[in-house]
Amino acid sequence: MSEVADLAELDTLERLATGFSFTEGPIWHPEQYLLFSDMPQDVRRRWDPQHGITVAMRPANKCNGMTLTRGLSLLVCEHSTSSVVIEHPSGKREVLASHWGDRELNAPNDIVVGRDDSIYFSDPIYGRMPVDGIERDQDLDFQGLYRISPAGELQLLVDDFGQPNGLCFSPGYDKLYVNDTPRCHIRVFDVAGDGTLLDGKVFHENIGTGVVGPTGEPEGGVADGMKCDELGNVYCTGPDGVWVIEPDGSRLGVIPVPEIVGNLNWGGPDWKTLYLAATTSIYRIRMRVAGHPEPYMQPG
Predict the structure, then answer these.
(1) What are the sequence ranges of the domains in the chain?
(2) What is the rounded (10 degree) CA torsion for 58, 39, 263, 182?
(3) Is 141 exposed, middle or buried (0-12, 13-18, 19+ CB in 10 A)?
């Protein structure tokens, strides 16, 4: 922890809850509660300081990555349905993407919203494995990164990943980071004015072994969930916890976590708390920096 001490307000984690199967997809709602997925149990759970853990949705289509729109609708990557869906505050649910052409998507995994409210998501095959998804054959012959434009058009941006996984924007939204789990690295792309991506290159490499077990769970910590702070540092899951990588690509240090971390997100009233979905538990740690301001953090 000493290497990232300048960023952390406290040097210890707080475990909020435990006893889950495999946690993923944490998202903090501005109304001050956390949603996360327990994929093997096919349930979406909620935590808040007043009530602790409650069930938000069951079954949950083995949902994985989640985020919010500017208007606080919930965007969800569903393993079981191979879909990206939107759940409006009214309760209305819509499918935004499920196929590329006439072929079913693999299993949307992680998701972010751009400055222009377009939606970017990764589509590896992990949700077609047992336990965390539904075991079935792959329709597509690639694992891609997609964009849903503000008009609702689905665009394939990049199709040469081993398995694209976590993704996050830099402050200013001029760069998009995407990690590739089996290749053990993070790539960075310039974001063009029309929302497409340019000049992809390796940003940081040698993040674990890239091995994912037969049930879809990472072995030993891999490049999986990923977020950026307001200073431009990238926080990526990996061996021993969460790797913190400076904007120039050099590793600042590791936030140690006693379980394999699947994903993380910023939360709290000031967005300076990191919530960690780590296998059987949910942890949090206070930081001196905040997450970079995403649209849902400033709704309106």
Answers:
(1) 2-297
(2) -150
(3) exposed
User: How buried is 299 (Cβ within 10 angstroms: 0-12 exposed, 13-18 middle, 19+ buried)?
Assistant: exposed
Q: In whole angstroms, what is the distance from residue 260 CA to residue 219 CA?
A: 8
CA–centroid distance for 296 within its chain: 15
Query: pTM for the full model?
Result: 0.95
Any idea of the CA torsion for 38, 39, 44, 48, to the nearest 10 degrees? 20
Helix/strand/coil percentages in the chain, nearest 5: 5, 45, 50
Q: How far is CA 136 from CA 63, 80, 82, 95, in A?
A: 16, 10, 11, 21
Reported as a single tens digit per residue, the pLDDT across 105-137 is: 999 999 999 999 999 999 999 999 999 999 999
Q: Which CATH class is domain 2-297?
A: mainly beta
What integer is the mean pLDDT of 18-45? 97
CA-angle at 255, arms to 252 and 256, nearest 5°: 135
Backbone phi, then psi, for 296, in 5-degree steps? -70, -20
Q: pLDDT, tens digit, for every residue of 217-275?
A: 677 899 999 999 999 999 999 999 999 999 999 999 999 999 999 999 999 999 999 99
